[in-house]
Each structure stands twice: as C-alpha cells, then as structure tokens.
Amino acid sequence: TNTTLNGNLYSAGDLNAYSGEVDVRGNACLGGKLYKHDYTIWNSYKFEDSSETRYMTDFTAEMRASLGDEYTTHEYWQTYSDTSVANDSSIYAKSGLQFCGNDVTLSGTIMSENYLMISASRALNTAENGEMNLYVADGNIGIFVGDATINGVIYAPNGMVQLCGSNIQINGMIIAKEI
C-alpha cells in the first residue's frame, strides 16, 4: 500500500499512518503527533511536529466560490451509486454525500456541510484535465478505494480525513483537523 501526496499536508491535530509507504512531496505540518503503525515508511521534504496550537487559515469562502454559478444542491443526504459514478457539475449538500461504485470519477467542487464518503472498489479518479476539490465544513471525509488519483484539495477544517486504498496519489493538498 502506497500513498503519494504531490503537495502539502496540514493537520491541526494528529496524523495516523497505516500505509506501507507515505511519500509527501512537499511540507508536512502537524499540530499534533505522527503515529506510524505497522511498518510505515514516512518520507517528506520538511516535517514539523509541534504540540503548540496551530490556527489554520479558513478557506471556506474560497471553497464556496469554487462551486461556481451552476451546481447541484441536495437538501438531504444523497447517495450516488452505480457501477460507474461520475458528476457533470459541482455538488453542494446540506447534510451528507456518498459516492459508491466500482469506478468513481469526480470533477469540480464537491461540498457537504456534514459528511462526504467515497467508496470505489477499483478506482477513484479526477476527470480528465480536471480538478476535484472535496470540502466538508463540520464533518469527516472518508475515501475508501482500490486506487486513486486526486488532482485538487481535500479540506475538512473541523473533521478527519481518512484515506484507505492500495495506491493513492494526490496532486494537491490535504488540510484537516486530523488525518
């Protein structure tokens, strides 16, 4: 199991690494501790481990603006489920969002107030020549995949980001309370 982040990783709290190899090709800044479980190999260009309180910049306004003028809105929990799942516009959910399929391809901004879960038995991918920005205001983001290529930002300022998969590549950054 390998996880590659071509960008920066910021966590106000702890980071738990269960992967065979975690390769952060940028800065890793933690407000808490790094916990390497099993035989995890950790690589990063610069690593800061500090128990002092860190105040993260709030990107909520920027994430909301990235929805654009035309996006799909869901008042209640919404599940997208099929063999192949893909979106054709940005999505905003007041409750929670779930994407389930063998292959999940997302683009634009995917925003939820409470929870976002992506489950792809084979692959999660960013749409061709696109960007995927995942944002949850007050909850967690769970990504459970075989393989994943994510071009964009994963942002959960008040929650946890969970990444579980065999080969995950992120070209962008992760910002979360806990990872």
Please give a quick description of this structure.
The protein is mainly beta. Helices cover 3% and strands 65% of the residues.
Number of strands: 16
Beta-sheet strand percentage?
over 45%
Largest sheet: 14 strands, parallel
From the N-terminal CA to the C-terminal CA, the straight-line distance is: 17 Å
What do you see in this structure?
- There is one protein chain.
- The chain is mainly beta and 179 residues long.
- 3% of the residues lie in helices and 65% in strands.
- It is globular.
Main attributes of the structure:
globular; 1 helix; mainly beta; 14-stranded parallel sheet; two-stranded parallel sheet; 179 residues
List the helices and strands and how they pair.
Blueprint: E1 2-5, E2 9-11, E3 15-17, E4 21-30, E5 34-36, E6 41-49, H1 60-65, E7 71-74, E8 78-81, E9 84-86, E10 90-93, E11 96-106, E12 108-112, E13 115-126, E14 132-136, E15 140-164, E16 167-178
Parallel strand pairs: 1-4, 1-16, 2-4, 2-16, 3-5, 4-6, 7-10, 8-11, 9-11, 10-12, 11-13, 12-14, 13-15, 14-15, 15-16
